[in-house]
Specification:
The chain is an alpha+beta fold and 150 residues long. The chain has one domain: 3-Layer(aba) Sandwich (Aminopeptidase). It is built from three helices and eight strands. An eight-stranded mixed β-sheet has the order 1-2-3-4-5-6-8-7, with helices on both faces. The longest helix has 15 residues, at 82-96. The structure holds coenzyme A.
């Protein structure tokens, strides 16, 4: 899959997690670039006209739980709806795989609320994220647990 998008950006699927992991980490996500999480079913990257990675996203299916796992856009390229496009792709992928509901642990709930996601008490969430069992959860680190019903 490759989408020609705008004049100077290229969005395409990739199998190489490492550079995406570096970007996610630089954007503040809890990621070890050398450790691709299990259950990742699709990854996308967006390159600028020089082939530099400017945004990325991943979709995960973990023990039957459908997860919008990673999404990040480099600071200089934000506000151009790249994140929205990538989130759409994640959701389409998960729905295509049978999702009736999708989950994420995110630090910007206001962003996802724009796209129909809702914040859910952690006790109601299935075990899809290490955040849920991390000792820093709600103790210095405050990700929102979010769900979108299809
Ligand atoms: C969150 C993030 C992915 C947004 O990407 P982006 O490409 O700049 O966002 P978009 O251009 O698609 O924004 C779409 C809409 O959301 C709004 N929006 C963008 N960032 C937002 C935020 N942090 N909170 C609330 N709304 C936000 C935009 O203003 C726009 O609104 P509009 O439709 O009314 O014009 C990006 O800021 C990012 O990578 N942040 C750091 C990593 C991160 O937090 N990732 C999320 C994982 S928890």
């Amino acid at each position: 899959m490759e989408t020609s998008w705008g004049r100077e950006m290229r969005l395409y699927e990739t199998d190489d997690f490492y550079p995406l992991g570096v970007l996610f980490k630089a954007c503040g996500l809890e990621v070890k670039p050398e450790e691709k999480p299990e259950g990742i079913v699709k990854m996308w990257r967006v390159d600028d006209e020089d082939g530099e990675l400017i945004a990325a996203a991943t979709a995960q299916v973990l023990n039957g739980i459908y997860v919008a796992k990673h999404l990040a856009v480099t600071e200089a390229c934000r506000g151009k709806y790249i994140g929205k496009k990538l989130l759409n792709l994640i959701e389409e992928e998960l729905i295509g795989r049978g999702a009736k509901e999708m989950w994420l642990a995110g630090k910007v709930p206001e962003y996802y609320i724009k796209f129909g996601w809702e914040t859910v008490p952690a006790e109601e969430a299935p075990p899809f994220s290490k955040c849920l069992v991390c000792k820093q959860f709600n103790n210095g680190c405050y990700p929102s647990i979010m769900r979108k019903r299809v």
